[in-house]
Amino acid sequence: MANILMVVSAADSLTMKDGSEHPTGYWAEELVESHRALRAAGHTVHLATPGGAKPTVDQVSLAPDNAGGEAKAALFKAYLDEIDAELSSPLVLAEVDAAAYAAVVLPGGHGPMADLAFDHDLGALLRAADADGTVIAPFCHGPAGLLAAKHDDGRFVFAGRRLAVFTNEEELNGGTGENTPWLVEDVLRDEGAVVDSGPAWQSHVVRDGNLISGQNPQSSGDVARQVLAALEA
């Protein structure tokens, strides 16, 4: 069985285009579905955040209308309660050795747009992981974290790679809308990534070598299953 690193945003707000602060964090379904599937398969999952801060769940993601109903909302909350000790004492991202892990998983929520996208420690870790062929699996807004990974000459580590990410359509019509400070899909394209999008709000997973990415919360379980398949190969 393998050690898997799950890098989670420590942000609890995102500065919007108009300068207002929008409460945010990680998206419950994304962390729960992936963490549960990886752990159920027998792997060890370690959580890490910038500074080792306890991550904040986006409360919007626990509302029944956004979680897929009362039952799912209750399930997500119960699972987060179950792993609260792990969430309360994550690893310090700057102290993590990429070589100790067979996979790096990055769930979303808008939090990664506030911190992981600009985190030099995450960038160094992802650069090392990619060089070693380690499975890297971001999904929804998690691919924002990929933007931190640059070569010494400033080139984007994942330029030319196919990936999925929360689309402009999903952001503008079901995310934070026109007040979103920047669109992750657009910035990834500008950096040279090849964005492969599926229908809005439907699971869509893209694999390009060791990079396994998902488009939205609905992709969470399928991303985890692809990670498991890659680890078993």
Automatic annotation (TrEMBL):
Keywords: Glutamine amidotransferase, Lyase, Stress response. It holds the Pfam family DJ-1_PfpI. It comes from the Bacteria. Residues 30-229 form the DJ-1/PfpI domain. Belongs to the peptidase C56 family. HSP31-like subfamily. PANTHER family: GLUTATHIONE-INDEPENDENT GLYOXALASE HSP31-RELATED (PTHR48094:SF11), PROTEIN/NUCLEIC ACID DEGLYCASE DJ-1-RELATED (PTHR48094). This is Type 1 glutamine amidotransferase domain-containing protein. It comes from Arthrobacter halodurans.
